[in-house]
Design brief:
The protein contains six helices and nine strands, in the order ββαβααββββαβααβ. The chain is of the alpha/beta class.
Protein backbone atom coordinates (compact mmCIF):
# COMPACT_ATOMS: atom_id res chain seq x y z
CA UNK A 1 0.00 0.00 0.00
CA UNK A 2 1.05 3.57 -0.58
CA UNK A 3 0.08 6.56 1.48
CA UNK A 4 0.08 8.96 -1.44
CA UNK A 5 -2.48 8.47 -4.16
CA UNK A 6 -1.32 9.08 -7.71
CA UNK A 7 -3.79 10.43 -10.25
CA UNK A 8 -3.31 10.41 -13.99
CA UNK A 9 -5.23 12.96 -16.03
CA UNK A 10 -5.17 12.46 -19.78
CA UNK A 11 -7.48 14.78 -21.71
CA UNK A 12 -10.00 13.23 -24.04
CA UNK A 13 -9.59 15.95 -26.61
CA UNK A 14 -6.93 18.63 -26.98
CA UNK A 15 -7.40 21.97 -25.29
CA UNK A 16 -6.72 23.76 -28.59
CA UNK A 17 -9.87 22.22 -30.08
CA UNK A 18 -12.18 23.92 -27.54
CA UNK A 19 -14.28 26.74 -28.95
CA UNK A 20 -14.88 30.14 -27.40
CA UNK A 21 -18.30 28.94 -26.21
CA UNK A 22 -18.64 27.34 -22.80
CA UNK A 23 -16.81 24.01 -23.09
CA UNK A 24 -18.58 20.89 -21.92
CA UNK A 25 -16.78 19.07 -19.12
CA UNK A 26 -16.69 15.35 -18.34
CA UNK A 27 -14.90 14.06 -15.23
CA UNK A 28 -14.21 10.32 -15.17
CA UNK A 29 -12.72 8.52 -12.15
CA UNK A 30 -11.73 4.89 -11.75
CA UNK A 31 -11.98 3.35 -8.29
CA UNK A 32 -8.72 1.81 -7.05
CA UNK A 33 -7.03 1.48 -10.42
CA UNK A 34 -3.29 1.20 -9.98
CA UNK A 35 -1.22 3.93 -11.62
CA UNK A 36 0.48 1.35 -13.83
CA UNK A 37 -2.68 -0.49 -14.90
CA UNK A 38 -2.85 0.99 -18.38
CA UNK A 39 -1.37 -0.27 -21.62
CA UNK A 40 0.55 2.96 -22.18
CA UNK A 41 2.36 2.32 -18.88
CA UNK A 42 3.73 -0.90 -20.42
CA UNK A 43 1.61 -3.21 -18.31
CA UNK A 44 2.74 -6.83 -18.86
CA UNK A 45 -0.72 -8.29 -19.56
CA UNK A 46 -3.41 -5.60 -19.61
CA UNK A 47 -4.37 -3.87 -22.86
CA UNK A 48 -6.27 -0.57 -22.69
CA UNK A 49 -6.48 0.78 -26.27
CA UNK A 50 -8.97 3.53 -25.49
CA UNK A 51 -7.07 4.90 -22.50
CA UNK A 52 -3.90 4.62 -24.58
CA UNK A 53 -5.45 6.76 -27.30
CA UNK A 54 -6.52 9.35 -24.74
CA UNK A 55 -2.98 9.48 -23.42
CA UNK A 56 -1.52 9.81 -26.90
CA UNK A 57 -3.85 12.59 -28.02
CA UNK A 58 -4.21 14.55 -24.79
CA UNK A 59 -2.16 15.68 -21.82
CA UNK A 60 -0.96 13.32 -19.11
CA UNK A 61 -0.01 14.49 -15.64
CA UNK A 62 2.11 11.69 -14.18
CA UNK A 63 2.97 13.57 -10.97
CA UNK A 64 -0.52 14.64 -9.95
CA UNK A 65 -1.47 13.53 -6.47
CA UNK A 66 -4.90 13.15 -4.90
CA UNK A 67 -6.04 15.01 -1.83
CA UNK A 68 -6.42 11.80 0.17
CA UNK A 69 -5.19 8.19 0.19
CA UNK A 70 -8.63 6.55 -0.01
CA UNK A 71 -11.97 6.92 -1.73
CA UNK A 72 -14.20 9.46 0.00
CA UNK A 73 -11.45 11.99 0.85
CA UNK A 74 -10.32 11.97 -2.78
CA UNK A 75 -13.87 12.63 -3.98
CA UNK A 76 -14.40 15.42 -1.49
CA UNK A 77 -11.21 17.15 -2.62
CA UNK A 78 -12.08 16.76 -6.30
CA UNK A 79 -15.54 18.29 -5.84
CA UNK A 80 -14.56 21.13 -3.51
CA UNK A 81 -10.93 21.92 -4.31
CA UNK A 82 -10.23 21.86 -0.57
CA UNK A 83 -8.10 19.65 1.61
CA UNK A 84 -10.40 16.78 2.54
CA UNK A 85 -10.11 17.22 6.31
CA UNK A 86 -11.57 20.73 5.93
CA UNK A 87 -14.66 19.21 4.32
CA UNK A 88 -15.34 16.78 7.16
CA UNK A 89 -14.37 13.77 5.05
CA UNK A 90 -11.56 12.45 7.22
CA UNK A 91 -11.65 8.88 5.90
CA UNK A 92 -13.76 6.69 3.65
CA UNK A 93 -17.41 6.64 4.62
CA UNK A 94 -17.51 10.16 6.06
CA UNK A 95 -20.17 12.56 4.81
CA UNK A 96 -19.35 15.77 2.97
CA UNK A 97 -20.40 18.75 5.08
CA UNK A 98 -23.64 20.22 3.80
CA UNK A 99 -22.30 23.77 3.60
CA UNK A 100 -19.42 22.86 1.25
CA UNK A 101 -19.48 24.50 -2.17
CA UNK A 102 -18.92 21.99 -4.97
CA UNK A 103 -18.06 21.92 -8.64
CA UNK A 104 -21.62 20.74 -9.28
CA UNK A 105 -23.05 23.86 -7.68
CA UNK A 106 -20.58 26.19 -9.36
CA UNK A 107 -21.15 24.72 -12.81
CA UNK A 108 -24.91 24.80 -12.33
CA UNK A 109 -24.70 28.49 -11.38
CA UNK A 110 -22.68 29.08 -14.54
CA UNK A 111 -25.50 27.70 -16.68
CA UNK A 112 -24.43 24.09 -17.06
CA UNK A 113 -26.62 21.01 -16.87
CA UNK A 114 -25.05 18.84 -14.17
CA UNK A 115 -25.13 15.07 -13.84
CA UNK A 116 -23.53 12.43 -11.62
CA UNK A 117 -23.36 8.76 -12.63
CA UNK A 118 -21.95 5.92 -10.54
CA UNK A 119 -20.30 5.76 -7.15
CA UNK A 120 -20.94 8.66 -4.75
CA UNK A 121 -19.59 7.70 -1.30
CA UNK A 122 -19.98 11.17 0.19
CA UNK A 123 -23.11 10.52 2.24
CA UNK A 124 -21.53 8.94 5.31
CA UNK A 125 -22.16 5.25 4.63
CA UNK A 126 -19.75 2.32 4.51
CA UNK A 127 -20.05 -1.19 3.18
CA UNK A 128 -21.07 -2.38 -0.30
CA UNK A 129 -22.79 0.06 -2.60
CA UNK A 130 -26.54 0.49 -2.27
CA UNK A 131 -29.10 2.77 -3.93
CA UNK A 132 -29.27 6.27 -2.44
CA UNK A 133 -32.68 7.09 -1.01
CA UNK A 134 -34.58 10.22 -1.94
CA UNK A 135 -34.62 11.43 1.68
CA UNK A 136 -30.84 11.10 2.06
CA UNK A 137 -29.73 14.63 2.91
CA UNK A 138 -26.35 14.05 1.22
CA UNK A 139 -27.40 12.70 -2.15
CA UNK A 140 -25.73 14.17 -5.27
CA UNK A 141 -28.67 16.51 -5.89
CA UNK A 142 -27.94 18.25 -2.59
CA UNK A 143 -24.54 19.23 -3.97
CA UNK A 144 -25.56 20.68 -7.30
CA UNK A 145 -26.34 17.74 -9.59
CA UNK A 146 -29.58 18.10 -11.55
CA UNK A 147 -29.53 14.49 -12.68
CA UNK A 148 -28.04 11.56 -10.80
CA UNK A 149 -27.92 7.80 -11.14
CA UNK A 150 -25.85 6.76 -8.17
CA UNK A 151 -24.96 4.24 -5.48
CA UNK A 152 -23.44 4.78 -2.06
CA UNK A 153 -20.19 2.85 -2.60
CA UNK A 154 -18.53 0.27 -4.88
CA UNK A 155 -20.71 -1.70 -7.29
CA UNK A 156 -20.19 -4.42 -9.90
CA UNK A 157 -22.15 -6.23 -12.58
CA UNK A 158 -25.96 -6.10 -12.60
CA UNK A 159 -26.15 -3.17 -10.18
CA UNK A 160 -29.17 -1.84 -8.35
CA UNK A 161 -28.96 1.95 -8.56
CA UNK A 162 -30.94 5.05 -7.65
CA UNK A 163 -32.08 7.64 -10.17
CA UNK A 164 -32.86 10.66 -8.03
CA UNK A 165 -34.18 8.37 -5.30
CA UNK A 166 -36.05 5.94 -7.54
CA UNK A 167 -34.62 2.41 -7.41
CA UNK A 168 -33.80 0.72 -10.69
CA UNK A 169 -32.12 -2.61 -11.53
CA UNK A 170 -29.68 -2.91 -14.42
CA UNK A 171 -28.16 -5.86 -16.23
CA UNK A 172 -24.60 -5.95 -17.53
CA UNK A 173 -21.23 -4.43 -16.76
CA UNK A 174 -21.43 -1.49 -14.37
CA UNK A 175 -18.90 0.63 -16.29
CA UNK A 176 -20.81 0.33 -19.54
CA UNK A 177 -24.14 0.96 -17.80
CA UNK A 178 -23.17 4.28 -16.25
CA UNK A 179 -21.44 5.51 -19.41
CA UNK A 180 -24.51 4.62 -21.46
CA UNK A 181 -26.74 6.50 -19.02
CA UNK A 182 -24.36 9.46 -18.96
CA UNK A 183 -24.46 9.60 -22.77
CA UNK A 184 -28.27 9.84 -22.64
CA UNK A 185 -27.93 12.84 -20.33
CA UNK A 186 -25.32 14.39 -22.60
CA UNK A 187 -27.42 13.82 -25.71
CA UNK A 188 -30.46 15.50 -24.18
CA UNK A 189 -28.48 18.60 -23.31
CA UNK A 190 -26.51 18.67 -26.55
CA UNK A 191 -29.80 18.74 -28.48
CA UNK A 192 -30.91 21.68 -26.32
CA UNK A 193 -27.60 23.48 -26.94
CA UNK A 194 -26.99 23.53 -23.19
CA UNK A 195 -23.44 23.02 -21.89
CA UNK A 196 -23.05 20.00 -19.63
CA UNK A 197 -20.92 19.03 -16.66
CA UNK A 198 -20.94 15.25 -16.34
CA UNK A 199 -19.29 13.26 -13.54
CA UNK A 200 -18.76 9.52 -14.19
CA UNK A 201 -17.41 7.70 -11.16
CA UNK A 202 -16.80 4.02 -11.82
CA UNK A 203 -17.11 1.25 -9.27
CA UNK A 204 -14.33 -0.51 -11.18
CA UNK A 205 -11.89 -1.97 -10.31
CA UNK A 206 -12.68 -1.85 -6.59
CA UNK A 207 -13.04 -5.31 -5.06
CA UNK A 208 -14.92 -7.61 -4.98
CA UNK A 209 -14.27 -8.21 -8.67
CA UNK A 210 -16.79 -9.72 -11.06
CA UNK A 211 -15.99 -9.67 -14.76
CA UNK A 212 -17.80 -11.00 -17.82
CA UNK A 213 -16.53 -14.34 -19.11
CA UNK A 214 -15.44 -12.82 -22.40
CA UNK A 215 -13.36 -10.17 -20.61
CA UNK A 216 -11.63 -12.39 -18.09
CA UNK A 217 -10.78 -15.15 -20.56
CA UNK A 218 -7.95 -12.93 -21.79
CA UNK A 219 -6.11 -13.66 -18.54
CA UNK A 220 -6.45 -17.43 -18.12
CA UNK A 221 -2.80 -17.79 -17.10
CA UNK A 222 -3.35 -15.58 -14.06
CA UNK A 223 -5.00 -16.37 -10.73
CA UNK A 224 -8.81 -16.39 -10.57
CA UNK A 225 -8.74 -13.14 -8.61
CA UNK A 226 -6.52 -11.46 -11.18
CA UNK A 227 -8.75 -12.66 -14.03
CA UNK A 228 -11.76 -10.94 -12.48
CA UNK A 229 -9.79 -7.80 -11.67
CA UNK A 230 -8.28 -7.31 -15.10
CA UNK A 231 -11.51 -8.36 -16.78
CA UNK A 232 -13.25 -5.44 -15.07
CA UNK A 233 -10.55 -3.09 -16.37
CA UNK A 234 -11.04 -4.37 -19.92
CA UNK A 235 -14.73 -3.49 -19.67
CA UNK A 236 -13.96 -0.10 -18.17
CA UNK A 237 -11.57 0.70 -21.00
CA UNK A 238 -14.23 -0.36 -23.50
CA UNK A 239 -16.69 2.04 -21.84
CA UNK A 240 -14.16 4.84 -22.30
CA UNK A 241 -14.29 4.02 -26.00
CA UNK A 242 -18.10 4.18 -25.85
CA UNK A 243 -17.90 7.62 -24.26
CA UNK A 244 -15.48 9.01 -26.82
CA UNK A 245 -17.42 7.58 -29.73
CA UNK A 246 -20.69 8.94 -28.36
CA UNK A 247 -19.30 12.45 -28.01
CA UNK A 248 -17.99 12.37 -31.56
CA UNK A 249 -21.29 11.10 -32.98
CA UNK A 250 -23.22 13.85 -31.18
CA UNK A 251 -20.91 16.46 -32.66
CA UNK A 252 -19.79 17.84 -29.29
CA UNK A 253 -16.33 16.28 -29.07
CA UNK A 254 -14.48 19.37 -30.24
CA UNK A 255 -15.98 21.46 -27.46
CA UNK A 256 -15.72 18.88 -24.67
CA UNK A 257 -12.94 18.72 -22.12
CA UNK A 258 -12.77 15.28 -20.51
CA UNK A 259 -10.51 14.44 -17.60
CA UNK A 260 -9.83 10.84 -16.57
CA UNK A 261 -8.21 10.11 -13.24
CA UNK A 262 -7.77 7.38 -10.67
CA UNK A 263 -6.75 6.97 -7.06
CA UNK A 264 -4.21 4.27 -6.26
CA UNK A 265 -4.30 1.69 -3.51
CA UNK A 266 -2.76 -1.38 -5.16
CA UNK A 267 0.68 -1.58 -6.74
CA UNK A 268 0.29 -3.16 -10.17
CA UNK A 269 2.45 -6.16 -9.32
CA UNK A 270 0.06 -7.39 -6.62
CA UNK A 271 -2.20 -9.12 -9.11
CA UNK A 272 0.09 -10.17 -11.96
Amino acid sequence: MKNLVLLFIPLLFTINSLSAAKPNVVLVMADDQGWGQMGYMNHPVLKTPHLDEMSENGLRFARFYAGGPVCSPTRATVLTGRTHDRTGVFDHGYALRSHEKTLGQSMKSAGYATGHFGKWHLNGLRGPGAPIFRDDSHHPGAFGFDEWLSVTNFFDRNPIMSRKGKIKEYSGDSSEIIVNEALKFIKTNARANKPFFTVIWYGTPHDPWTAAKADKKLFTRLSPKAQEHYGELVAMDRSIGMLRKGLREMGVAQNTLAVSYTHLTLPTSDLV
